[in-house]
Amino acid sequence: MTDYIIALDQGTTSSRAIIFDKKGSIISVGQKEHEQIMPRAGWVEHDPIEIRDNMREVIGIALGRANLTRHDIAAIGITNQRETAVVWDKNTGIPVYNAIVWQDTRTQSIVDRLAGDAGVERYKDIVGLPLATYFSGTKIVWILENVEGAREKAEAGDLVFGTTDTWVLWNLTGGPSGGIHATDVTNASRTLFMDLQTLEWRDDILADFGVPRSMMPEIRSSSEVYGEARETSLLRETPVAGILGDQQAATFGQAAFDAGESKNTYGTGNFLIFQTGTDIVKSENGLLTTVGYKLGDGPTHYALEGSIAVTGSLIQWLRDQLGIISTAPEVEQLALSVDDNGGVYFVPAFSGLYAPYWRPDARGAIVGLTRYANRGHLSRAALEATAFQTREVLDAVNADSGVDLTELKVDGGMIANDTLMQFQADILGVPVVRPVVAETTALGAAYAAGLAVGFWNDLDELRANWQEDKRWTPNDDVEERERQLRLWKKAVAKSMDWVDADVR
Fold first, then answer.
1. DSSP notation for 177-230
2. Among 185, 301, 326, 399, which residue has the least CB neighbours within 10 Å?
3. CA 160 to CA 175: how far, in whole Å?
4. Would you tell me how many other CB atoms lie within 10 Å of the CB of residue 154?
5. Tens digit of pLDDT for each residue in 345-358?
6. Which segments within 278-430 are labelled E, that is strand?
7. How far apart are CA 184 and CA 179, in angstroms?
8. Is the whole-model pTM more than 0.85?
9. Neighbouring-strand partners of residue 498
10. b/e map of 261-283 (b: 16 or more CB within 10 Å)?
11. Residues of the chain scoring pLDDT < 70
12. In 93-107, which positions are buried (b, 16+ CB within 10 angstroms) versus exposed (e)?
């Protein structure tokens, strides 16, 4: 009996395999972190081979912990860090360079060159995105221009590109021996190369970037059978049937399928997605227009997205770079050791500021320091930075949609932090709601795969699986809320205009 779906979640800090049952409940999890490679300021890389090997291992861990085999699994779903770029030799399966991570800012000069006199919104009407280091298109250009021999091999048709969903799919389905080179519409919409209306690569934009069309994967829907896992996998002969970029997957896992529904994910960064149905809505307030999902031959669903670069990774930075904490949960203990932030505000613009500002010249800033400030105040300020950034994105969503959200569905690792969630509700002025199954990213990928093979019948069946776990309601101190927001905005202003010709 094939009673389960397995989701492969290739994230920014780890790779996971999670097995779900018919009710969307977690049966088992396998997880391994991978190295965060930062060779220079602003550079962030991952080793694709490490990711490939870790993915194979976590599949075995998840199956072993559940005492299951491939015969128990109906389908495989894939979700992934969306804009991280991998370029590899299709004949050998060897990457020509490390994966360049979505947080990486090394391509700013390429962005400036492409923007020219037309500005960063040169392609936005077509692809829904501004020119920015965030997206994978400029990362491909950097590899072609800076890795010896890469341009020649690409022009000869030997190199291929993929975001990490494509890398996982290609290796899972055979690699150099017939691996499927494909991606789904949600990941394709994050490259700067896909036309939102036609769902096809734009040859004119690829030509502007100097990226050969032969490098690009086939664009498929988010829910269909792409192929089967091959003999090298513990899941051999199991259909791979769902792919969604991580934030779209989390939205799908929250059962937010229709126009007006939304979610906010608290992970390495924060990502608020607001569904706009089958309408392509162009933002006037710093949001991205992106594909929400497409099920087989069904209509394409679109969304507005507010992307925040640094939230959970700020806590990781406190742990790994500063040594203020030894484990992530300790940040809440330290935050609770003080009554408030002591006047300290932390703007974590490590990769510039994303939505709603889109300021690549910004850098991290801690302001309001006095000798009174201690580790507790800094920890609280780090948590509060996540909530403040989310408030600014939510304000942009409300302005673009014309309808104020009345509650915020949340998911991701940081929602286990009650102090953060209560402050989030306070600073938003609306309730914050956590589902029973918090691993909505993997769940969304499982749902997409399960729909494709008939494991689940329709979206109504998935809606019935969603259950509320906890709700945080805001306090009514509007004056204090506005005071905090005013000081936060002052802090954000201090982080801007930092990068100039003399800053490395």
1. TT---EEEHHHHTTSS-B-TTT-SB-HHHHHHHT--GGGSPEEE-SEEEEEE--
2. 326
3. 12
4. 24
5. 999 999 899 889 98
6. 288-294, 300-308, 345-347, 365-367, 408-411
7. 16
8. yes
9. none
10. bbbbbbbbbbbbbbbbbeebbeb
11. 1, 501-504
12. bebbbbbbbbbbbbb
3-state secondary structure of 303: strand
Cβ(56)–Cβ(434) below 8 Å: no
Question: Rg for the chain (alpha carbons), in Å?
Answer: 22
SS percent in the chain: helix, strand, coil, step 5: 35, 25, 40
What is the Cα–Cα distance from 30 to 9, expressed in whole angstroms? 10
Residue 412: the pLDDT is 87
CA distance 18 to 28: 6
Which contiguous run of DSSP H or E holds residue 52? helix 48-66
Instruction: Give 270-295 pLDDT, tens digit per residue.
Output: 989 999 999 999 999 989 999 999 99
86: enclosing H helix or E strand: strand 86-89
**Best CA proximity match to 253, nearest among 405, 76, 439:** 439
Query: pLDDT tens across 143-188, in order?
Result: 999 999 999 999 999 999 999 999 999 999 999 999 999 999 999 9
338 Cβ neighbours under 8 A, 6+ residues apart: 374, 376, 377, 380
DSSP string of 449-493? HHHHTTSS--HHHHHHH--EEEEE---S-HHHHHHHHHHHHHHHH
Report yes or no: 181 and 218 within 8 Å, Cβ to Cβ.
Answer: yes
Which helix (H) or strand (E) segment is 394 a member of? helix 375-401
Q: So what's the pLDDT on residue 53?
A: 96
Q: Kindly report the length of the chain.
A: 504
